[in-house]
Amino acid sequence: MAKAKSTSKKRSSSRTTAEGLRQSGRSSGQSERSSARTKAKTRKDAATQAGEASSNGTPVTVSDVMSPDPLTMLEIATLSEAAERMVESGADTVITLHDTTAHATGIITFGDIVLRAVAKGLNPATTTLSAVQSEGLVIMDPDASVDEAVALMRQHGIRRIPVVDGRNVLGMVTLESIASAVEPRATLSAIATQA
User: How far is the C-alpha of 88 from the C-alpha of 14, rounded, in Å?
Assistant: First the structure.
């Protein structure tokens, strides 16, 4: 008889445990769905905030968020010269200039030097910037809006845009400079959801 009571208690305990697991499974499923809805709403709100940057007093033109005086070099300079100047100045990008007209013609990054030259066996001491620079340079006027910069970055799949006034290279607007000036989460989220 004592055995029957013990078995009965075990069955009751098993039922209680099973019911508890089912309920906690429901709770965790409901919690996950609620969390997913909250994250989606947060992304949507962040994207909206990025689009409304001009209405709430945050910087609105690229000149407000650009890094001034970017590193520039003539496109006839060598990759070795560019790498030296980049290390000296702490820049990760060089804006290349035409050798006679001095207007901006392209961009070179450390990654370009490694992937387009060194990895292909080109000699950095003799290879010029024009040989590996990114073509089809996208530039912006200093009075262009941050929203326009974000749209161009999305459209061209780029992270940096030289800011040019006529032939004068004034600065560089980057995804990072926009993000740090205009609600960091909103800008990055807006680009991420549109890309």
Answer: 71
